């Protein structure tokens, strides 16, 4: 059975505390927006799609029992809470896009006499629940498109060796995963020879979470530390790199976990195709390039300590950006639920979506 980062049943929400993995599998109940903001900000739940879904579900759980005097006060309350949730982490765009969608829904219902407060609540919860299910089906499409695309560059009897970075699997999404979804699909097709996953310092999403998922799924895999990527490409014949995204700009520049950019540079040097796998909910059509992406900086303790144990010399200063931006020119393709796009074609695909 697949891992579940989010458990949502009959209006009750739990998240798997990813700070405790892989040592302990413990679910934490999210009773409302304040809990939602905290678990996202502390990274007990992380990964761009999972952040948005947990944020929105935390609001759905809260408004269910809220008493509103009038529709306007409900609208005002929802808007404030959505803005608050967007502030929990700045780089991934998914929560912001979901907030925009939900706010426009609330505005429409507020102006429509056919909707009572109770009906507004029901519809709101329904739309959020749809987001949860859509994320899983989108990821499956990403997996299938990605596997097909990568395989099209190899002969029918070649099994592939894929390198991935950070965690993009069931733990980072509502289920199946994005880049890890592509790996899952290759494995299901029996065309995967091996996966290499980076440790992903400093938060170790690779060593703690991706390794955990790969072992759980019995996918043949090897863990490497981040500084081994060049050696791996030189010595282990990597077929392709597939990573996720936190925010893709309209020109295809992609923000993802710190270290992604250096892997893309190394991939170019070694002639290894470098793919980004991400749903449309990670694409920010409003920004033209990656220069406009705000990069979150995390507490230095994530670098200086392993658990409670300090490993860095006392007195040293630290720089801890959680993400970097890979220029579009290094990306062979962006694998989405609607197909694979060259970064240059993304703008066209986005315009088609608006029409
Ligand atoms: O800081 P994190 O763990 O939230 O960063 C996660 C990543 O960078 C993932 O690659 C990205 O969110 C895509 S998850 C499908």
The N- and C-terminal alpha carbons lie at a distance of: 40 Å
The name CATH uses for the topology of the largest domain is Rossmann fold
Q: Could you report the average pLDDT, rounded to the nearest whole number?
A: 96
User: In CATH, what is the class of the largest domain?
Assistant: Alpha Beta
What sort of overall outline do the alpha carbons produce when their principal axes are compared? globular
Low-confidence stretches: none
Number of helices: 11
What percent of residues adopt helix (DSSP H or I)?
A: 40-55%
- What order do the strands of the largest sheet run in, or round the barrel if closed? 6-5-4-7-10-15-16
The largest sheet, given as strand count, sense and whether it forms a barrel, is: 7 strands, mixed
Number of domains: 2
Using only C-alpha atoms, the radius of gyration works out to 20 Å
Order of helices and strands: EEEHHHHHEHEHEHEEEHEEHEEEEEH
- Strand pairing plus helix content: what structural class? alpha/beta
Instruction: Indicate the proportion of strand residues.
Output: 15-25%
CATH superfamily of the largest domain: Translation initiation factor eif-2b, domain 2
Bound molecules: 5-S-methyl-1-O-phosphono-5-thio-D-ribulose
Number of strands: 16
For the record, the CATH architecture of the largest domain stands as 3-Layer(aba) Sandwich
């Amino acid at each position: 059975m697949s891992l579940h980062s989010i458990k949502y049943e009959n209006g009750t929400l739990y998240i798997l505390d990813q700070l405790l993995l892989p040592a302990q599998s413990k679910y934490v109940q999210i009773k409302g927006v304040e809990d939602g903001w905290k678990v996202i900000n502390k990274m007990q739940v992380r990964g761009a799609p999972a952040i948005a879904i947990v944020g929105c579900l935390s609001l759905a759980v809260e408004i269910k029992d809220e008493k509103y005097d009038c529709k306007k006060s409900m609208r005002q309350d929802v808007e404030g809470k959505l803005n608050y949730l967007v502030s929990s982490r700045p780089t991934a765009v998914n929560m912001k896009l979901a907030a925009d969608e939900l706010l426009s829904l609330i505005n429409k219902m507020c102006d429509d006499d056919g909707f009572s407060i109770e009906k507004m609540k029901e519809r709101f919860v329904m739309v959020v629940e749809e987001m949860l299910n859509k994320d899983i089906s989108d990821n499956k499409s990403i997996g299938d498109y990605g596997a097909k695309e990568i395989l099209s560059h190899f002969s029918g009897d070649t099994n592939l060796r894929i390198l991935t970075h950070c965690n993009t699997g069931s733990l980072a999404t509502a289920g199946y995963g994005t880049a890890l979804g592509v790996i899952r699909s290759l494995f299901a097709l029996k065309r995967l020879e091996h996966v290499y996953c980076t440790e992903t310092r400093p938060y170790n999403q690779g060593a703690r979470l991706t390794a955990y998922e790969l072992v759980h799924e019995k996918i043949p895999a090897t863990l490497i530390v981040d500084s081994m990527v060049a050696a791996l490409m030189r010595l282990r014949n990597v077929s392709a790199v597939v990573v996720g995204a936190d925010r893709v700009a309209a020109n295809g520049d992609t923000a993802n976990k710190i270290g992604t950019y250096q892997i893309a540079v190394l991939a170019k040097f070694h002639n290894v195709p470098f793919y980004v796998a991400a749903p449309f909910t990670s694409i920010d059509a409003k920004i033209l390039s990656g220069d406009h992406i705000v990069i979150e900086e995390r507490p230095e303790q994530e670098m200086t300590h392993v658990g409670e144990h300090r490993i860095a010399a006392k007195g040293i200063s630290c720089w801890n950006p959680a993400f970097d931006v890979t220029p579009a020119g290094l990306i062979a393709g962006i694998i989405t639920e609607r197909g694979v796009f060259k970064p240059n074609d993304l703008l066209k695909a986005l315009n088609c979506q608006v029409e």
